[in-house]
Every structure is written in C-alpha cells, then in structure tokens.
Amino acid sequence: MKLIERTEYLNKLKASIGTPDIKVITGVRRSGKSKLMEALIQYIKSSTDANIIHINFNLLEFEELVSYKKLYEYVLANYKEDVANFLLIDEVQMCNGFEKAINSLHTMEKFDIFITGSNAFLLSSDLATLFTGRTLKIEVYPFSFKEFCKYYDYSDSYSAFEKYLTEGGMSGAYLYKDTEQKFAYIKDIFETLVIRDIRQKYKIRNRILMDRMVDFLMDNISNITTIRNITRILSTNDETTDHKTIGSYIQYLCNAFAFYKVRRYDIQGKKYLASNDKYYLCDHGFRYAMLGTKNMDYGRIIENIVAVELMRRGYEVYVGVLYKKEIDFVAIKGNEKVYIQVADNIESENTFLRETAPLLKINDAYPKILIAHTRHETYDYEGIKIIDISKWLLN
Known about the structure:
Layout: H1 7-16, E1 22-26, H2 33-47, E2 50-56, H3 68-77, E3 84-90, H4 98-107, E4 112-116, H5 127-130, E5 135-139, H6 145-152, H7 157-167, H8 179-202, H9 207-219, H10 227-234, H11 243-255, E6 259-266, E7 271-281, H12 285-291, H13 298-312, E8 316-322, E9 325-333, E10 336-342, H14 349-360, E11 368-372, E12 379-381, E13 384-388, H15 389-394
Parallel strand pairs: 1-4, 1-5, 2-3, 3-4, 6-8, 10-11, 11-13
Antiparallel strand pairs: 6-7, 8-9, 9-10, 12-13
C-alpha cells in the first residue's frame, strides 16, 4: 500500500514526546492510527538513541500478554537503564485489565507511553476514569481532500474533488480498482464498527432498530433534528421505542466516532442552545457504501465534508441561528470565529441570494464565507468570500 506522511498528526505526536501524559491516539476504525504509530517509531529511531517497546495485539506473537499482569511484567523485563524508554501499544483493549498495567507503568515515570485502541472500548469519555494520570488525546480522521490529492498525485483539484465526493477518505479502499469492491470494503468497515464493537460492548439486542437508526442518520446528515423526532419516526405499528434508547444508541455511535453531533449557537445572544442538533458522518464515503445514491443531495454531502474538515482543523463547530434563520456553521478556535454557509450549485441568482442573505444580516466583523461547488477562483460579494469547495479544502 502506498503511504503518505500525515504530517499534522505526526507533528502533534512529536511535540508530545517527553511530556508526562499518556498519549491516546483515537479515531474511527481504519483511519490510520496504527500507521501513524509506525511513523512515530521510525521518527524516534532516526532522531534519538532510545529503547522502544512496541506491542501490537493484532499480532499473534503478543497473544501471551493479553492479561494485564503479563503485559506489566513484559514491559518491565524490556526496560533499559540510562536511555529513554518508549512504550507503544496498538489495540490496547485486547489486554484484559490493560488500564491497571498502564496506570502502574505511568506512575513509575520511566516510560513515554503511546496507545491506540478500538474506539468502542477506549472511548474519549472513558479516559478520565480509565487512567489515573493525565491523558493527551490525538484524534485521527479519515483522509482529508488534501491527503487524497497527495495520495493520487492529483494536480486538477476540480476533477479530484468529483472523485473524493463519492470515494471519501477511507484510504484502505484506495487499493481497490473496482468501484463495487471499494464500497464493499467501506461498508464492511462500518458494519464491523457497529456490530463487533458497539453491539458487543453495550450488549445491544435490538439490532434491527439500531440498523434503522443508522440508516436514518446517514440519510439525514446535516438536517436539524431532535432525539424525540427520531424516536417518533422510527416507531412503527409493529415496534415502538423510547427516546432514552435512541439517545443511548446515538451516543454510542458518536463515542465511536461514527457520527459527530453539532449543537446550535445563538449568534445574537452569543449562547449555546440546548435543542435541535445536527449529526454528521465521520466520512461521507460510508453513506455511499451503505445507502448508494438513495435520496442523493450533493449540497448536504458537501456540508458534511466541510463539517468534518473544520473539526480536523481544530475548530469547535456549531450551527448558527440568527433571527430564526440558520447559518450552516459557526466555527470557533481561540479568538478566531468564522461564519460559513455551504451549498452545491449557486449559479441560480435566487439560490445565491438565499445562501448569502443570512450572512449579510450578521453585524459583527468576523469573516463570512460561502463555500460552494463553483469551479471558479475566489471572489468577494458584499464582504462575503465566495470560495470553491476544492480550493477551500486545499487551503
């Protein structure tokens, strides 16, 4: 498989070397966590004289370490004096009671610890209770459009985006030449994520309900909704459910990075709103693989791509509300704030005016952007930057 250096993630890991944190690499399945750890190992080897203890529980040679006492003993047996000791563990959840070994080893202050794990078993929400030491979470996303272009050596961003729009960022699929095989691979990842991880961890019995709920969320990405509305829609004459069950199922999916919940933000009142959220899929390629072209809406797919890209760039992402009008995104990072509208085709004057109108009503001086499938260079309209989606993704 062709490999490209995921520089931004690797730089974060490099910067964390020597800190007292337990470094936890998280992200949806097959997003490249293990490959990133391999890249870190190569960097450590090339830059310093260190003792590297690397355990990959996917490999049979480490099968004997699946109990925390065996893991603890193995690590101590391989410790070396008078040199920096790095402990790197892939799929740490496969070791029973792994947190006991990790906590004890971390307390000794002899190891620089990096771990990855299956997300349903090593959830971000669990880190504070699993580990007694401070944790540093580094979230890995599927390939960005920039990484996609780098992998395929694309120079024409417009034609590259047409392919990325359907293929998505699950890089393992890039090995398959046949389109059906690509989507079969992507579908298998998602079904494995749902069935083997979430269902096993939470002992979910009503598989049909969860499948229907997943299909609903995929079919309605970027639509504002509530847990109660989803419950009402999924309840049938033959089967009823309750909002607590649906809410739990959605939380499990978000914990496993399959979906991201985006809250609403009152621009005028500068406060967060408690109701009516949006849900975005971690990678839009999953939607094509699971649902095909059913109810295809390229505007919503592009909005999903923008939402995930903003998160990838480190923004807090919210749905903006101003005078009962929706603004697709309010993106905040430190003192920086950006208002963003997203559309597919804005060639129609009516569509263009509809998309720019909410942005023109915002009175503060923060940047305002309309991202669309324009296939043109960036231009300005009444202080709003109109940017082609492919250009914005590469910026």
